[in-house]
Structure formats: structure tokens, C-alpha cells
Amino acid sequence: MEQQTNRDRRLKDSTIIAHAGRDPEAHSGAVNPPVYHASTITFPSISAMNKARQDRFNNVTYGRIGTPTSYALEDAVAELEGGDRSIALPSGLAAIAAAITAFAKSGDHILMVDNVYGPARKFCDQFLTGYGVSVTYFDPHLTAELEPLIQENTRLVYLESPGSQTFEMQDVPAISALAHRRGLTVLMDNTWGTPCFFKSFEKGVDVSIHAATKYIGGHSDLMLGLVVAKEDHYRTVKSNAMLLGLCAGPDDCFLALRGLRTIEARLRMHQAHALEVANWLTGHPLVEQVLYPALPGADGHRLWKRDFLGACGLFSVVLRPCSEAAVAAMVDGLRFFGLGASWGGFESLVLPMHPEDLRSATRWEPLGPVLRFHIGLEDPRDLIHDLECGFDRLRAVQQAVPA
Ligand SMILES: *Cc1c(COP(=O)(O)O)cnc(C)c1O
Q1: Residue 196's Cα: distance from chain center in Å?
Q2: Considering only CA atoms, which residue is closest to atom 4 of ligand 1?
Q3: What is d(CA 283, CA 120) in angstroms, rounded to the nearest whole number?
């Protein structure tokens, strides 16, 4: 019988999160890798410089290409998600742009899911098309029906499951299998799933994209993107990012790695609180629908349960039809829900959404106003009370001025 060595066994996520990307011996024993502020890297000799430059993605040769700080973060995230390597970029949107343009060149066609993050759609429609790349958006519920949409020049399929506004789930393994049969590369925005709760590479994804601005940073104080991939796709995206001159700032890399150390603990709490608030909202007379795949009975719950290891704290609510003034009365007076974009920090947020403006292959028939909530680490009983008071204000406005 072969002896199991310490090296062969895949570590559990919590252990990876505590240990990956750390090398105290290399840094005078300090637990965390320090922040390397560096542009110029100097060498003791020409031969040492030439040797380092032969393998630039594994050595420190120039600040833009990588420092011990960025490599530490990249290694840790890649190990957690199950990829080989990752690339830190200045924002989530930069990660999306660097990944797509690595695979789609002039004359190519890409398939993009219709519930995609708004600025990613804008990047395709207002930038990519100008460089001769055509885009077809598709209904997120399609799987086998996608095949007829594949053209001779189609290069990639871009997914976002669930979408971060209306939370439609995609059958990622089925779509990936089809895409691979047709020689396409599968890119996915995995910001909602995080490297903890959706293991992209086990589900057929080739290139996983994160807005590390959200849960990896986790504290609403940095902008960062990450692209995670196996070695060959990593080289393609990394080379492209280097051509574009994209690199992440050292302080943001440091903060993101610090955030990563608590990501699982935070996510479990976000999930528990979000479920409690979402359950309460589900029974509320002013609520038409709760869009949260982790909620039993919700749209996409079966796929979420099959493919995901957990859920984050982001979901949307469709209200019963009511006036804009009534929604404003509710939202403006909330005490614990900040009104603003982004999510994934420790605090709760609310944001009115207009999904009808951000799709072309499908239609969003407005049943009522949509509010997106990020449920933070506050006690859910306080959050529910805050929302209850908000609904009272909504009701008061609605009754004063009949719609
Ligand atoms: C925020 C977000 C992005 C973009 O990230 P930035 O760091 O803000 O550029 C991409 N995808 C999703 C799903 C997001 O929520």
C-alpha cells in the first residue's frame, strides 16, 4: 500500500486560507508578506538579470510584472479556487477586459450571458465591437439550445452565475461541456460564488474572474481584480495583461490578502444572515419575489444546491408595484443599509436596480421595483427591524397618494 504523504493530500479550504501565499522565513519571520513598493528591481550581475528575465512570470524583474506581495496574493487565491495561477489587476472590470481580449481578436465572435454585470456589457458593446469583435447575448436559462448560436468564428462563452442583479443561475457544467466540444474557451465572472463557494475548474470553467473589490477585499476599501486559471490559460491572460500594462497596486494586494484570511468565516456569517433576512422578506405582504438562489423554492435553487458550496450575502427583492416616492421613503430612511454600489464588505447595502435597461436577449417585465440588498455582518434582527420600519414608511406614502 502506498503511503500517503503530506504533500499529495489536497488541503481543506480553511487550512489553505490560513496558510497559502505565506513564507515567513523569506521575510524575517513575519507572518504576513510585507508590502513591496517597487518599480525598479536591481540585479547583482548581467547573468543574474538575464536568468531572471528568462522566466519573468516566476521571478521579480520589474514592478509591473509582479512582486512578492502580488505573487503571494495570486498564489493564495489560485490555490483556494483550484487553479494553477492567478493574475492581480487594478479592478474587477480590468480583469474582465484583460481576460476577454486575451482570447477574442478582431473578426472573432463571443457568446455572452444576458444577465452579465452592466459595465462588462458596456465594454463589449462600446469597446470590443470597435475592434471587430462581435457579441451575441443569450438567455441565461439556455444550455443545449446554445449550440445553434455558436458560429464558425466563435471563440468564447462568457458566464456569470448567478447574475449579480437578478440572480439567474446557469448550468455551468453543461454549458462548459458543450463549449469544449466546440473548441470554445469558457470564461466566468465568479465574484458572487467567490473562490470558496464555487470551484470553477471542477465545473468546467477555463478562466475564472473575480472582482476582488468585493468579498476577497471584504472591507469596502480597495479596488482589485483577479483572473484565475490553469497554467496554459494563465500564460495567455498574463501575457495579454502585460501587453496592456495592467498591474495592481501593492497596498491593494496586501489588503486583499489580509481580507482573504477571513473570507470563509465572513462568508458563512453573510450567508446565515442573508438567509434569515431573505426568509423574512419572502413572507412579507409588500414583497412580490425574492431573487436568491440559496433560498429553497427560489429560481435556480436546484442548480445552486448541485454546484455551489455556499452563498454570499447578495440578493434582490422585487417589490409589489408601488410609486418611486414610496420606495424612496423606505430606502432613504434605512439606518443600517448604506445606499451605494459595490458589495462584499462587512456592512449592509441597498441599491435600486433597473434590470430592464441591462438586457437585450431577454426581457425583464417590471412586476414592481427591484431593490438589491447586500446583507452584512450586523445582527439580522436589527436589519429586519430596520426593514420593517422602512416598509411602514413605504406603506404610509403609498396610502397617502394612491398609485
Ligand atoms: C463589482 C463587480 C465587477 C467589477 O469589479 P470592480 O472592481 O468594481 O471593477 C465585476 N463583476 C461583478 C459581478 C461585480 O459585482
Answers
A1: 11
A2: 92
A3: 34
189 catalytically annotated? yes
pLDDT higher than 70, residue 324? yes
Q: In whole angstroms, what is the distance from residue 120 CA to residue 136 CA? A: 13
The catalytic position among 13, 75, 108, 189 is: 189
Active site residue 62: no
* 369 Cβ below 6 A of ligand 1: no
Taking the model in full, what pTM does it have? Answer: 0.96
C-alpha cell at 30: 513575519
Give me the catalytic one of 22, 155, 214, 238.
Answer: 214
pLDDT digits (tens, 9 = 90+) for 332-368: 999 999 999 999 999 999 999 999 989 999 999 888 9
The CB of 345 under 6 Å from ligand 1? The reply is no
Compute the average pLDDT of residues 192-205: 98
* Residue 278 to residue 366: CA distance in whole angstroms: 20
| Ligand 1 contact via 161 beta carbon (within 6 Å) | no
* Per-residue confidence (pLDDT) for residue 6, from 0 to 100: 64
- What is d(CA 188, CA 257) in angstroms, rounded to the nearest whole number? 22
Q: Look at residue 42 and tell me whether its pLDDT is greater than 70.
A: yes
| β-sheet bridge partners, residue 135 | 110
Query: HSE of 327 in the Cβ direction (CA atoms, 13 Å)?
Result: 20
**pLDDT for position 246:** 98
Q: How confident is the model at residue 1 (pLDDT cuts 50, 70, 90)?
A: very low
